[in-house]
């Protein structure tokens, strides 16, 4: 048997300048002994020993997949990427195998071949039955730089880099842009995993990750630790997963969300995302692509149209729901605020969020939405959003257009919420005309804080809520604001304790409409008040 033949396919148009690294002496003494080829000690398989070049130009995918297959056939092991740039199409993960990227190692997503040419990334697997219930990117996994399905005990570890330069960030066939509708040979995710368990992703970097830096769907016992992601759409989507630990990650995602638990119908049935912790993470949408990773931290010039999304969000896909989730010790900067959304008929419950700092927030610092988009199988019912605790939150320099919003819909209230020890400083400038606004319900709308337009309150807008407790909450504005600090509409059971605001002559702290069982005590400038039933009132 011969040593695996080097693949000498070249990328059209040249490659990336990269220093050719001298491969260490890792080959077996007898080249005909395939069991020794590429091995560097027991259980380690060097991709160069299987023909990978790492020059940034040669397509190294066949060699890498051979190394992975060799490790798997031996019962498992580590596939080693020494320093170098490995241009690739679809890499196939296998059970019991670790990919280890040494310092200076880069897995580079090669550009898709010209339309009509053969090769490129694996084809998106067919999904004609329930594809309409979520976006194109959520329905397919094989059209990725690195993917695995039905696997167990796998890991990708650093400290190298995954660079999705050749990946699409478009919307596939559903896009309005004809250039995005091509799918054959095109990859759109850096890492995608489906129906796997016992997975570790640790210590590496992702640059320009495509539609998703990481898409994990139906993955249980998932650890994501110490990743740095600087990307052009979502950082990581955790969809229909159980027992997940995300920690110590940094994500810059100006054009989409950073860390996103979801619960789509992509598996063909509703499966909740549950038992999840997200801790010690930094999320932002403030920096130009690549400048987080290179350390220059270049903010977008004034006037640049960028959504600066960059947040932690549950949703929008929410068919299976969210249960038992804790978010703690995280930093938001130059992005949207925290979002909890269930709009497709599922539960969102038992959520604890503590120790969050926010700066330069571009819309609502806190956004809860219980809606009725109902993107899923017919005859579903509206879900529930309940039992949420939020504490120790500080937000500064918040855009004043949208305050924090908790909004259900008529007949379906958000329930059992506690918010305490919160300080929100916004830019101010709200007017009396804005205070008089009555926001549309938009029951079926796509959930975003901006969906309602300018808020009629400067601190919190609460609508269709039952049993909310707010204590030790302070609202501060950098300039005068003529909107009430709190606006409540169709709220039952609201207790406020030790509320602090900046009093402006003639501007109420509370606006109440169709509110019952309201109380406010020990709050600056407001006498202790208990109200059983209010049609309309200000305090």
Describe the structure.
With 539 residues, the chain is mainly β. The protein has 2 domains: 1-120, no CATH class; 148-162 and 187-538, 3 Solenoid (Pectate Lyase C-like). 3% of the residues lie in helices and 42% in strands. It has helices at residues 61-73, 432-435, and strands at residues 44-46, 55-59, 77-81, 84-88, 91-92, 97-101, 105-109, 146-149, 152-157, 161-163, 189-194, 197-202, 205-207, 212-217, 220-225, 228-230, 234-239, 242-247, 250-252, 259-262, 273-279, 282-284, 313-314, 322-333, 338-342, 347-359, 366-370, 384-398, 404-407, 414-426, 460-477, 486-501, 510-521, 529-538. It has a 28-stranded mixed beta sheet that branches. A 6-stranded parallel beta sheet has the order 5-8-11-14-17-20. The longest helix has 13 residues, at 61-73.
Q: State the helicity in percent bands.
A: under 10%
Q: Say what the CATH topology of the largest domain is.
A: Pectate Lyase C-like
Number of strands: 34
The shape, in one word, is elongated
Mean pLDDT, all residues: 91
Any low-confidence stretches, pLDDT <50, length ≥5? 1-35
Counting helices, strands and paired strands, the structural category is: mainly beta
Our estimate of the beta-strand percent is: 35-45%
**C-alpha Rg (nearest Å):** 26 Å
The CA-CA distance between the termini, in Å, is 86 Å
Domain unit count: 2
CATH class of the largest domain equals Mainly Beta
- Tally of helical segments: 2
The biggest sheet, with number of strands, parallel, antiparallel or mixed sense and barrel status, is: 28 strands, mixed
The CATH architecture of the largest domain: 3 Solenoid
């Amino acid at each position: 048997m011969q040593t695996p033949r080097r693949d000498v396919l070249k990328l059209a148009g040249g490659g990336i300048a990269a220093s050719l690294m001298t491969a260490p002496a890792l080959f077996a003494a007898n080249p005909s002994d395939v069991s020794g080829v590429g091995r560097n000690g027991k259980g380690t398989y060097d991709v160069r020993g299987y023909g990978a070049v790492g020059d940034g130009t040669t397509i190294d995918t066949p060699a890498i997949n051979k190394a992975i297959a060799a490790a798997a056939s031996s019962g498992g092991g580590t596939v080693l990427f020494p320093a170098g740039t490995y241009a690739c199409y679809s890499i196939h993960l296998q059970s019991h195998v670790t990919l280890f990227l040494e310092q200076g190692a880069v897995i580079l997503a090669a550009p898709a071949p010209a339309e009509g040419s053969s090769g490129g990334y694996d084809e998106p697997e067919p999904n004609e039955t329930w594809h309409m219930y979520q976006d194109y990117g959520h329905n397919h996994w094989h059209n990725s730089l690195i993917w695995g399905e039905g696997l167990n005990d796998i890991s990708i570890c650093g400290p190298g880099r995954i660079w999705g330069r050749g990946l699409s960030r478009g919307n596939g066939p559903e896009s309005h842009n004809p250039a995005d509708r091509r799918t054959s040979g095109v990859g759109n995710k850096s890492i995608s995993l489906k129906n796997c368990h016992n997975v570790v992703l640790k210590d590496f970097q992702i640059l320009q990750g495509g539609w998703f830096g990481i898409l994990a769907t139906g993955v249980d016992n998932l650890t994501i630790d110490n990743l740095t992601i600087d990307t052009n759409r979502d950082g990581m989507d955790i969809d229909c997963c159980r027992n997940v630990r995300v920690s110590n990650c940094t994500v810059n995602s100006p054009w989409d969300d950073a860390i996103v638990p979801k619960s789509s119908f992509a598996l063909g049935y509703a499966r909740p995302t549950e038992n999840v912790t997200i801790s010690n993470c930094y999320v932002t949408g403030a920096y130009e692509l690549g400048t987080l990773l290179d350390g220059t931290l270049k903010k977008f010039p004034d006037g640049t149209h960028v959504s600066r999304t960059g947040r932690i969000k549950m949703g929008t896909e929410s068919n299976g729901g969210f249960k038992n989730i804790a978010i703690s010790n995280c930093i938001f900067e130059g992005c949207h605020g925290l979002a909890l959304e269930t709009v497709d008929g599922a539960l969102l419950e038992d959520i604890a969020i503590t120790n969050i700092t926010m700066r330069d927030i571009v819309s609502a610092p806190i956004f809860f939405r219980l809606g009725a988009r109902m993107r899923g199988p017919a005859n579903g019912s509206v879900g529930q959003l309940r039992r949420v605790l939020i504490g120790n939150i500080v937000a500064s320099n918040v855009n004043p257009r949208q305050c924090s919003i908790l909004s259900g819909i008529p007949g379906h209230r958000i329930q059992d919420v506690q918010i305490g020890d919160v300080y929100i400083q916004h830019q101010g400038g709200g007017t009396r005309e804005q205070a008089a606004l009555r926001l549309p319900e938009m029951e079926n709308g796509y959930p975003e804080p901006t969906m309602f337009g300018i808020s009629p309150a400067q601190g919190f807008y609460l609508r269709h809520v039952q049993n909310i407790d707010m204590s030790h909450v302070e609202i501060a504005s950098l300039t005068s604001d003529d909107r009430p600090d709190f606006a409540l509409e169709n709220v039952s059971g609201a207790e406020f304790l030790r509320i602090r605001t900046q009093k402006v002559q003639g501007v109420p702290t509370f606006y109440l409409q169709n509110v019952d069982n309201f109380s406010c005590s020990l709050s600056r400038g407001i006498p202790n008040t208990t109200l059983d039933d209010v049609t309309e009132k200000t305090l």
